[in-house]
């Protein structure tokens, strides 16, 4: 066993080599430059704006979700209540559109929108409009975000 390292191969205390003042100053200058470059970069500010927007929208979205559950539970005893709850779920798709728009504009990330409702459409009549409130397969699932190619 040598006097330079312990039995685990680590340097013994007091034997750690430290950079000289010039090397330390150079390392600090490089770290400072990288930090300044990151803070000044536009992407940093866009990400911060996205986070701030998400934090400000989250309580409103939570309130909308709670209101949807409460209104649907209270009005479910009537036939009208089922339709009101369904339309509130359809209205919640707007929240997804809003967050996808934020991600697209601020983060340059494209998130695929959910597939359209089956059977719904302009000429679908009453049953087409009612089917828009029904869940349809994988529409509720999210897909992984893709970066937009410029």
Brief descriptors of the model:
single chain, 150 residues, mainly alpha, elongated, transmembrane
Task: Give a concise summary.
This protein is an all-alpha fold and 150 residues long. Helix content is 60%, strand content 3%.
Give a description of the structure.
The protein has 150 residues and is mainly α. The protein has four helices and two strands; from the N terminus they run H-H-H-E-H-E. It has a two-stranded antiparallel ribbon. Helix 2 (42-75) packs antiparallel against helix 3. The chain is elongated, with a radius of gyration of 28 Å. Residues 110-150 are annotated as: Disordered. Keywords: Membrane, Transmembrane, Transmembrane helix. The chain crosses the membrane at residues 48-67, 73-95. It comes from Paraoerskovia sediminicola.
């Amino acid at each position: 066993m040598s006097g330079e390292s312990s039995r685990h191969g680590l340097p013994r205390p007091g034997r750690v080599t430290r950079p000289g003042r010039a090397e330390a100053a150079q390392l600090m200058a490089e770290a400072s430059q990288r930090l300044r470059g990151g803070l000044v970069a536009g992407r940093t500010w866009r990400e911060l704006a996205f986070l701030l927007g998400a934090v400000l929208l989250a309580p409103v979205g939570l309130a909308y979700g709670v209101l949807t559950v409460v209104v649907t539970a209270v009005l479910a005893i009537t036939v009208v209540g089922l339709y009101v709850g369904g339309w509130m779920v359809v209205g919640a798709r707007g929240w997804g559109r809003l967050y996808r728009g934020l991600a697209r504009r601020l983060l340059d990330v494209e998130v695929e929108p959910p597939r359209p409702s089956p059977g719904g459409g302009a000429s679908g009549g009453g049953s087409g409009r009612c089917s828009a409130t029904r869940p349809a397969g994988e529409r509720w699932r999210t897909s992984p975000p893709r970066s937009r190619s410029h």
